[in-house]
Amino acid sequence: MFDSRFTGFGIRELGIGKPMSKKTALSVKDLSVVFDDENNSIHALENISFNIRAREFVCFLGPSGSGKTTLLRLIANLIKPTTGEVNFMFGHPPKIGMVFQQPNLMPWRSVLDNIKLPLELENDVHAHEKALDMIRLVGLTGFEDSLPRDLSGGMAQRVGLARGLIHDPDLLLLDEPFASLDALTRERMWTELSNIWQAKQKTVIMVTHSINESLFLADRVFVLTQRPGKIKLDMPVDLPRPRKDDIRYTSQFGKLAKKLRSAIE
Amino acid sequence: MPRPYEKIMKTSLSRLLGILSILLFIPLWELIVRASNLPKFILPSPMDVWTRFLKSLNDGSLLYHTSITFFEVLLGLLAGTLFATIVGYMLAKSKTLEKILSPYLVASQAIPVVAIAPLLVIWLGDGILSKVVICALIVFFPVLINTIVGVRAVSSPLYDLMNSLGANRLQILLKLEIPASLPVLLGGLRIGATLSVIGAIVGELVSADRGLGFLLQLGDFQYDTSMVFVAVFMLIALALLLYGMVTLLERRFLRWMK
Question: Do A98 and B161 make contact, defined as CB atoms within 8 angstroms?
């Protein structure tokens, strides 16, 4: 599907040329989070407000300790905000796909069974066929029955990605999914994720501390400050798609990178 | 990593050593009997025990008593494990409950089962029930502790995964908590299985009219020491059988760990 010979044709077929939806998918208002310890309280996030449109790829960029992961956990409804609210415009409750910093696979399940898990929870009778399709999409054909311990870091993270997408989620949350990979694998995964995103047209929120990663993948980048995390910059990324590896050497990319760099303290 | 044939050689060599040590045990025993010249009711020879074994096998008494004890051990093991995993799971999930119950649990472990076995026989009668309860009690603690440790060790990112997917309590239990804590849980069952045999014998020695413990005591009273030996060997076989069953469970369910 992503063979270069077909890219031009495929893009129109998949509706990728279409402008992004104007519909808001997710709205976050006045979000603050305070973690209470025994003797002190930590302000993780302060007054975060933003809207995300359907099928938009958004990156949150920030130094460690800026509350990026906390923000993602709030949106995934894993923790409750101290004040403020997260509103979904679709699905009640919304279907969420999440990819973690570590692959976070179940060591007792094979590749196929790990990918199948979200469908099993929904009692989907076509789980097996869908999982096989997904394995093909992320390039793991032949590894269906392998156990996680036999996979390389990149392969394991691909399983994580496939598991995050298989149940056709309304929202895909990516928590520095490539941080633990080596540089070469990481860059190859950017291209793969970009291709998958174009094919699946998902609303994606990703947190990262890599400027290159955010510019390569996102439609919009938010920069968060040090704790307590606040939104410092909201920057659209108007680079053409599909983005290829060499986009990083264009002047436009350089300009945006510089802008992000100066926003991060 | 050793090449396949080296691996096979190594395992078969260690297995051979095991068999060899058992085979050496019998002539050594025979030798001690002959050298010491002790009467048969103090130390019977391997042949005496073998003859006694065949005799009790032929009149059906051995199988009868063994199956009674096996039944008590199995039932006690099942009941104790079931109860311990349920209580253990609740304790692992609730710190409050743990605070309330832990003094009782620790105190219960300070009392040797031998001490309360007579009480249980008085309360529950000298039939099978009192033995099953004694087995269950002795199995309870190791399985309980391992359940708590196993459930507490379930990785929290995996809980995040299940929650982000909107999994309900039952799904989290079946698809995450049970498979994740199974290695530790089966470790507890392995200890419990051998302890359970001890439980049944303790109960039968207090008061019983059947079972291997009864046979043991009968042999003792009648100076039929060969019979005592036969009963002891049957107990060892029983414990090995149960141990093997747990090992089979581990092979079946923990293939991913190898």
Answer: yes
Instruction: Give buried/exposed letters for A251-263 (b at 16+ CB in 10 A, else e).
Output: eebeebeeebeeb
Mean pLDDT within A108-135: 93
CA A99 to chain centre: 7
pLDDT band at B6 (very low <50, low <70, confident <90, very high): confident
Q: What is the CATH number of the domain that holds A238?
A: 3.40.50.300
Q: Most B CBs within 10 Å: which of A106, A123, A166, A167, as the mutation test of the B interface?
A: A106
Q: How far does the CA of residue A204 sit from the closest CA of chain B (Å)?
A: 15
DSSP A242: S
CA separation for the pair A88, B220 (Å, rounded): 78
Say yes or no: A92 contacts chain B, CB-CB below 8 A: no
Contact assignment for A98 to B164 by CB distance below 8 Å: yes
Total count of residues recorded for chain A: 265
Q: Show which of residues 31-70 on chain A sit within 8 Å of chain B, judged by CB atoms.
A: none
pLDDT of residue A20: 59
Using CA atoms, how far residue A107 sits from A146, B218, B220, in Å, is 10, 52, 53
Number of domains, chain A: 1
User: If you count them, how many residues does chain B have?
Assistant: 258
Helix (H, G, I), strand (E, B) or coil at A99: strand
A207 strand-pairing partners: A60, A175
Cα–Cα separations (whole angstroms), residue A18 to A90, A198, A239: 21, 11, 15
Its pTM stands at 0.83
Q: A216-248 pLDDT, tens per residue?
A: 999 999 998 888 888 888 989 988 888 888 888
Q: Is residue A257 part of a domain?
A: yes
Where residue B155 falls among pLDDT bands split at 50, 70, 90?
very high
* Average per-residue pLDDT for chain B: 90
CA distances from A4 to A9, A10, A192, A243 (A): 10, 9, 13, 13
> Would you call the peptide bond into A177 cis, given omega within 30 degrees of 0 as the criterion?
no
Report the greatest alpha carbon distance in chain B: 75
The domain of A205 spans 54-77+92-263
Tell me if A204 is assigned to some domain: yes
Cβ-defined contact of B165 to A167 (cutoff 8 Å): yes
Residue of A nearest to B183 (CA): A108
The confidence score (pLDDT) of residue A8 equals 36
Distance of alpha carbon A141 from alpha carbon A134, whole angstroms: 9
Contacts of B182 in chain A (CB under 8 A): 108
**Predicted confidence (pLDDT) at residue A89 exceeds the cutoff of 90:** no
The answer to whether A220 touches A234, Cβ cutoff 8 Å, is: yes
How far the first Cα of chain B sits from its last, in Å, is 14
**A246 CA: distance to closest CA in chain B (Å):** 35
